């Protein structure tokens, strides 16, 4: 691991709506965290405004080791798909953060329906 937290998507960063994704996470911290949070987050930007929300979230609490790994299977949401427009942009990230302050993000794209992965 290159840092205290890792998100591994098997080298992929583009996914189809409804596709099941194996999200492998790993951590190596100086002390056990009280909490881990894994989220699939979308954010919009455009016309002077930015919005962010979690489409998926999983929280682990209590009894966590200082180092470990786990795989979570999530189905990608139907939308909105990733867009880099002049008026509105939509971006997605997997984010992993801990109660110790450590955090990491992995940008991904959700393709338009029928766009393949």
Give structural notes.
By secondary structure, this protein is an all-beta fold. It has one domain: Immunoglobulin-like (Sandwich). It has strands at residues 5-8, 14-15, 20-28, 35-46, 49-61, 67-75, 83-84, 89-98, 103-110. The strands form 2 sheets. Strands 2, 4, 5, 7, 8 and 9 form a 6-stranded mixed β-sheet that branches. A 3-stranded antiparallel β-sheet has the order 1-3-6, with no helix packed on it. It is globular, with a radius of gyration of 15 Å. The two termini are 26 Å apart. The relative contact order is 0.34. The model has no long low-confidence stretch (mean pLDDT 91).
Number of strand segments:
9
- Domain tally: 1
DSSP strand content: over 45%
Radius of gyration: 15 Å
| Structural class estimated from helices and strands | mainly beta
Oligomer: single chain
CATH architecture: Sandwich
The number of helical runs is 0
Write down the CATH class.
Mainly Beta
Large-scale geometry: globular
Percent in helix? under 10%
Q: Termini, distance in Å?
A: 26 Å
CATH topology: Immunoglobulin-like
Low-pLDDT residue spans: none
Element-by-element helix/strand order: EEEEEEEEE
Main sheet specs = 6 strands, mixed
């Amino acid at each position: 691991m290159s840092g205290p937290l890792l998100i591994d998507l098997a080298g992929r960063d583009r996914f189809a709506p409804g596709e099941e994704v194996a999200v492998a996470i790993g951590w190596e911290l100086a002390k056990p965290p009280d909490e881990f949070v894994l989220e699939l987050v979308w954010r919009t930007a455009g016309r002077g405004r930015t919005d962010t929300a979690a489409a998926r979230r999983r929280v682990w609490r209590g009894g966590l080791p200082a180092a470990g790994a786990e795989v979570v299977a999530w189905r990608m949401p139907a939308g909105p798909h990733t867009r880099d427009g002049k008026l509105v942009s939509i971006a997605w990230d997997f984010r992993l953060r801990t109660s110790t302050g450590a955090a990491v993000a992995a940008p991904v794209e959700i393709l338009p329906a029928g766009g393949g992965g």
